[in-house]
Amino acid sequence: MRKTILLVLLVISSIQFAPGQGLYSPGQPADDGRFAASTKQVNQFFRRFNAEESQDGKKRYYSNDAEYRSTDLRKKFLDILFDNETSSIEAELKKEFVVDVINEEQPKYLDFHQGEWFAEVQTTFKYQGKSENVTLFMKLQPEGLGYEWVIERVGFEPFKKYFDKDTGSKKQFLHPLSHELDFMNLRRAFQENPKPESYTPTDYEPDYLTLFLYEIKKGHFKFENVTDLKFHFFQIDNWYFELAQFNRPGFNTGWLISNLVKLQEGDEDAVLKYIYDQK
Predict the structure, then answer these.
(1) pLDDT at 34 over 80
(2) Phi then psi for 28, rounded to 5 degrees?
(3) Where is the signal peptide (predicted)?
């Protein structure tokens, strides 16, 4: 029941904020304070969440600065780091999150290089003669003296259709005495069953990333465009939030928290499954 409620909240929230966001939407704010209020870059979101820059965004704060990670400054920033116009985040939930994050005894900060956050990149590729939507899930990893973005998972609907494994009485199987026949029944199994995944372990999960890379190497995928981008954060203990870009008139613009969920034991796996399986 808990997981069902959790997924319903995720679905409702994603529907609520979708019309207000866009990676390349029109409507740049005029320079009358709106530009300073807008969180224009993801890196700036990190700095504002941690209170590591001035309110006008002109000065970067470091550990020897008096305002560095100031609780009062964090309160001011956190109030404008939420989508306050179109998301369905309840005020009490937001308040609970802020109180937890700025707790003076154990404050919580975001760390760009810590992990536990990743990008969801919506793209289009030309595949078999037509444009197809491909979702790339990307993460940062150490590389040499720095870091690099890498593709960790791929979501592609046609791949999922290839691996629609039957279950129960519909599932074909290899007889437990097949070894006594030197597995000669494999010929019939592969010739007559269009779903060879039937002969894989119960916990088998297809590796869509390898398939995707193979198809690119074969020249079957041709990159076209990036159409949307958002980020998923699990860095704050017992919380999940989603970061999306909102380009619209007004002060509440830029990279903002568009979804917020308080996590209990087991919820993180449920949220990840929802994020990955909806693609």
Answers:
(1) no
(2) -75, 135
(3) 1-18
